[in-house]
Design brief:
single chain; mainly beta; 12-stranded antiparallel beta sheet; 2 helices; 12 strands; 6% helix
Length: 177
């Protein structure tokens, strides 16, 4: 299992960092889940290398010297409230969770991040899942960089730091704990 370093998770605190969440626009979504009991939302996406980490963390993530093809990123919003969801494909109408589980991914469009008193508001449309909106006080970010290797007829993703095989549908396995 991958060891976490202090650089793996970054808490985004300053307004200018939070407003950079707009960089999620058009990112493919692997997972979205609302945990009402703990007032958290987890959002897992993937994108081209360093798109999110370079933009959001700038000086925190040290770019590995090895080349890589993809960046997996996880955002954990905490102390969330006012969650609203509208529309989406029929099978997602009353759902507060989305996971690819080997099926087609969703994508994020129309992101709006604003400030309302002592909290922030995140609004976006996930094409099939529907439009979401919620307030939050904090958000944490972490990423994994991967190389893609074609092995026979399957494309495999390997962590550039550990050379560990990454499960495309669950790039952050410790999130299942």
């Amino acid at each position: 299992m991958r060891q976490k370093s202090s650089e793996d998770v970054t808490r985004l605190k300053r307004d200018q960092d939070l407003f950079r969440l707009k960089e999620l626009e058009e990112c493919p979504v692997l997972e979205f889940s609302l945990d009402c009991e703990h007032a958290t939302i987890e959002l897992v996406v993937f994108t081209e290398p360093n798109t999110l980490s370079r933009t959001i963390e700038e000086n925190v993530v040290q770019t590995p010297s090895k080349t890589y093809d993809r960046e997996f990123a996880r955002f954990r919003f905490s102390d969330i409230g006012d969650f609203r969801k509208k529309g989406g494909a029929k099978h997602f109408y009353n759902q507060t969770h989305f996971h690819t589980k080997g099926t087609a991914v969703d994508a994020i469009y129309g992101i709006l991040v604003s400030r309302s008193g002592n909290k922030h508001v995140f609004a976006a449309c996930l094409s099939k899942f529907g439009s979401i909106e919620f307030s939050f006080h904090n958000v944490q970010f972490e990423s994994r960089f991967a190389t893609i290797v074609k092995e026979e007829t399957v494309f495999c993703h390997y962590d550039v730091l550990t050379n560990e095989l990454i499960d495309f549908c669950n790039p952050f396995p410790e999130s299942d704990d």
